[in-house]
Amino acid sequence: MNFSSKLLEHAVEEFGKLPGVGKKTALRLVLHLLKQSDAEVGRFTQSIDKLKQEIKYCKTCFNISDMEQCEICASVKRDHGLICVVEDTRDVMAIENTNQFNGVYHVLGGLISPMEGVGPADLKIEGLIDRVKTGNVQEIILALSATMEGDTTIFYLYRKLKEFDVQISTIARGISFGGELEYVDEITLGRSIATRVPYERNVS
Ligand SMILES: [Zn+2]
């Protein structure tokens, strides 16, 4: 792409770094922003600045939150003995949308992926173990993607958690292999949580 301006080129370069945004789309977005009023663009850049500077992660479940503790963890109406373990905030949103789950969450912040250099220490696994250690947790639902990384993470968590007196289950995989949780429709996802199965695996 030959740009008539270095400023334009740099802006397109930055937008092009976003997931799913190619060079052409990046150019379209930048030209669109250029046509907006200063106030409009100001609101746009401020919202990103504020997001990055002020966002918090819940100290209990590590979900994205405006407060030290997220609304779900702070709620007395939720079942705090039932923890649903997910990859990221998008999964919490997807599961909340089903209105089928009344427990609380634990957001790992990713999945174990040797290919991408993500190990257990990079995820919020210790925080989960600490929650289980309190003895107030009866069941853990591992609601992770039906991918290699998801399966590896489930297996690792199972080995870490099996010594505790807690039931471990996985969501029913009506979800096709390679399926990402956030793209599953609400009915299927809601049902897969309701019909979760105990996770058993012969570990030597
Ligand atoms: Zn929380």
TrEMBL record:
Database matches in PROSITE patterns: RECR, TOPRIM
The answer to whether the entry has keyword Metal-binding is yes
Gene Ontology terms describing biological process: DNA recombination; DNA repair
Start-end of C4-type zinc fingers: 58-73
User: Which intervals hold domain Toprim?
Assistant: 81-176
* Stretch forming the signal peptide: none
Molecular function (GO) terms listed? Answer: DNA binding; zinc ion binding
Entry superkingdom:
Bacteria
Q: Which InterPro entries match?
A: DNA_Rcmb_RecR, Rcmb_RecR, Rcmb_RecR_Znf, TOPRIM_dom, TOPRIM_RecR
Q: Which UniProt keywords apply?
A: DNA damage, DNA recombination, DNA repair, Metal-binding, Zinc, Zinc-finger
Q: Which PANTHER family match?
A: RECOMBINATION PROTEIN RECR
| Role, per record | May play a role in DNA repair. It seems to be involved in an RecBC-independent recombinational process of DNA repair. It may act with RecF and RecO.
Q: To which protein family does this belong?
A: Belongs to the RecR family.
What is the name listed in the Swiss-Prot or TrEMBL entry for this protein?
Recombination protein RecR
Q: What organism is this sequence from?
A: Sphingobacterium lactis
